[in-house]
């Protein structure tokens, strides 16, 4: 059985590792594309949805962001020309979000940055030969 102290240590180790990766992702995404890690995650999730016009509510359900934080993230992406929002004709409360051609281009490069950072922090350590 794991002791309370071991559980807390494991939790703290996980948080430290996550925060290190998140800060590095933020730094590199900002430097390359002016994106925060959260904005990239929003763009990345939009790129992976299977429906043609995903709704904000559907996207929010799959993300760790609150609906208001997601809305701010989408607004920043829209201002940068990476996504476009439109109202649902059938339900004016519904908002669709689509990735623009510029957003696809930025995503392609930023996804490579993300994979590089993840490999550096989560990949197998190189042999010390």
Give a quick summary of the entry.
The chain has 129 residues and is mainly α. It is built from five helices and two strands, in the order H-H-H-H-E-E-H.
Spell out the key features of this protein.
2 strands, mainly alpha, 129 residues, two-stranded antiparallel sheet, 5 helices, Arc Repressor Mutant, subunit A, 8% strand
Structural class: mainly alpha
Percent of residues in β-strands:
5-15%
Q: What CATH architecture label applies?
A: Orthogonal Bundle
Query: How many beta strands in the DSSP annotation?
Result: 2
Strand order of the largest sheet: 1-2
CATH topology: Arc Repressor Mutant, subunit A
Number of helices: 5
Total number of distinct structural domains: 1
CATH class: Mainly Alpha
How large is the radius of gyration? 18 Å
Q: How far from one another are the termini?
A: 37 Å
Helix content: 55-70%
Mean pLDDT: 87
- What is the general shape? globular
Query: pLDDT under 50 segments (min length 5)?
Result: none
Order of helices and strands: HHHHEEH
Describe the structure.
This protein has 129 residues and is mainly α. The chain has 5 helices and 2 strands. A two-stranded antiparallel ribbon has the order 1-2. A hairpin with a 7-residue loop joins β1 and β2. The mean pLDDT is 87.
Task: Write the topology of this structure.
Layout: H1 4-33, H2 37-48, H3 56-61, H4 67-79, E1 83-87, E2 95-99, H5 101-122
Antiparallel strand pairs: 1-2
